[in-house]
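Supplementary notes for students who missed Thursday's class. We covered one full example, reproduced here. Read the sequence, then the structure, then the short commentary at the end.
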Amino acid sequence: MPLIAKNGLEVLLLHGSPGEMGQEHGRVLGERLRYGVKEYLRRSAKAFEVPYDRLCSEARRCEPFIPEPYREEMTALAEAAKVDYADVLALNCLVDVDAFVMQRLYHCCNFVLASPATAGGLFVHGRNLDFPHLGVLPRLAIVIGRGACPARSQAGHGTQDALPTLAVTWAGCVGVLTGVNRAQLTLAEVGSPAPDATLEGVPVSFLLRQALEESTTLEEVYAVLRSTPRTCGVNIAVSDGKNGAASAIELTPRLCARRSLRRGGLVVDDVALCSRTSRNRLCHPAGAFRHARMMQLIEANHGRIDAEVALSFLRDRYDGARGVARGRGYNCLCNAHTLQSVLFFPDQERVLLSHGGTPAPAAKFRELRLAQWWATGE
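Structure (token representation):
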């Protein structure tokens, strides 16, 4: 069976063509997807103060830019799950529609740490994802592994099989917001609103999936992200476990810049630090407080960060010494909207994650070993 339990986590393993993967996804998770469409999408429209018909119509503006294999997968998923294709499209484009219509700011964060910041040469990518859960998303939580897809044309690489990937996600999601591939690359995004947001580009989740499936190096990730039409402002943390390297890639629809590990640390949140992209962002004071808190934690533990210390960063709550009103989530890395908490050890091919409660870091972290999945797809 493609839906298996590993150490208390549900993992959906998909193989074959895009249509075959979509059919299996919809068949196995159809009940959850129907619940998500009924409860989450409809509540989202109300919470975001956007009529549901507009949510769907705005998502359709992105559709021509979505690579054909992903559209084929969504079509098969919708058919197998017995939901409207428009609902699946809206779910997968929600981040982009939100950025275009509402320009809201959430509190996601990433850090990548390596020697000399860590103890024992540890290389780790930590990630908290924040988004309104509306009491629904934790029930849709799933890990999806996709095997090597049949050969197709890829940007700059000719034609080759797409790399196997693993995504921490929700039922019905075809794109990737948090993931890792067989080449030991990890990617995770953070929204960073830009005034030139558009819906005439590849939605963020599909952009990240494309980069994971087509890349084996940081340079290849950068080439995919830079050359692909984009919808909104986003900062992306990318780590390379094979080479102990990492980049923050800061994007707007028109601009692309990057920065690298410095003194063994890299922080990627909604604050844009590259001079070219920072001038084109809609900033919020919360980002500066949270960024300062992350830097404070890294500096206070410099040279002795191990797995437990890295997990404590993800669990970080309000720090009274920073002088910001309690409950606002301004100067901590974990808040009531933190839905995913992930610690990647890409060079060790393992992941620690928590994504079934709110806030996610308060729940138990569970481990996935990736070597067997990369080798056998099981």
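Commentary. Residues 153-159 have pLDDT under 50 and may be disordered. DSSP finds eleven helices and 17 strands in the chain. If anything here is unclear, bring it to office hours.
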